Amino acid sequence: MSTKILAAAAAAAALFGLVSTALAGAPARGPTGKDFLVLQFNVSPPRAGQGVAVEFDTFAGNDIDGQLPPVNDQTRIIDVRLGKGFKVNGPAFASCKRADIDRNRCPRASQVGTGIATADARPAIANRVPAKVTAFNGKTSAGRPAVLLRAVANLNGQQVPLVLVAEIKPAAPGFGPSFVVDSGPLTSGSSPLFGIAQLHLNLPDKVVRVRGRAVHFVVAPPTCRGAWLFEQVNTAYSGAKLIATDRVPCVS
């Protein structure tokens, strides 16, 4: 693990009062040098052609002075791209509707993962706080495949939920399917009570049987050329992009 990454994570932890997870992907920096993005993936087992568990960490922020960016420079779209050849078999699994996750009524069978996050409720709450995350296989309001994330943070003694809809989109050039969260256009008074600065998500190797055949939620590519490349692209309202990558060693 590089000294640069450890230093960035440690600086952010000191600045925000966090105990942060050290991340192994190379950190990306914004044009001002203040904003950073780090991505780390883990695949188990890292073997081509098998159903796998996927674990990832993403960490973004300002580790220089901790100030929030101007509204136009804040992130609108988060696009997390799996390695080329990965498959996500969401349609084979139980699904949660968009309206049901808002009411915390997703079927237990639709749960595909759990995690923890760091919630940022500034300026209402100065210090960042932990949040519990649950991931469900589901659909967007328009009926497209998605992973629905429900994060719950304790804000001034109140359990406050935040729902993120990560639409599963087709493969981008050089990558596999991606999970895309789009906060939508800026609208006065529509901001959630908190955002997510750091997320650790674990998607275990979940399996269902379809016509007697085992179907895995995530399947690794059929081939391996030493490592699989993953990418995260954060796009600001201004259109500026911050891109972080990570490589996971694999075997055939």
Write the layout of secondary structure elements.
Layout: H1 3-16, E1 28-29, E2 35-44, E3 53-62, E4 75-83, E5 87-88, H2 98-102, E6 111-120, E7 129-139, E8 145-155, E9 158-169, E10 175-182, E11 195-203, E12 207-210, E13 213-216, E14 218-219, E15 227-236, E16 241-249
Antiparallel strand pairs: 1-2, 2-3, 3-11, 4-10, 4-15, 5-14, 6-7, 6-11, 7-8, 8-9, 9-10, 12-13, 15-16
Structure explained in plain terms:
- Helix content is 8%, strand content 49%.
- It is mostly beta strands.
- The radius of gyration is 18 Å and the shape is globular.
Name the poorly predicted regions: 1-23
Helix and strand succession? HEEEEEHEEEEEEEEEEE
Major β-sheet strand ordering: 1-2-3-11-6-7-8-9-10-4-15-16
What is the radius of gyration?
18 Å
Instruction: Count structural domains.
Output: 1
Number of E-state strands: 16
Strand content: over 45%
Tally of separate helices: 2
Provide a quick synopsis of the model:
With 252 residues, the protein is mostly beta strands. It is built from 2 helices and 16 strands. The protein is globular and about 50 Å long.
Which structural traits does this protein have?
252 residues, twelve-stranded antiparallel β-sheet, two-stranded antiparallel ribbon, globular, disordered N terminus
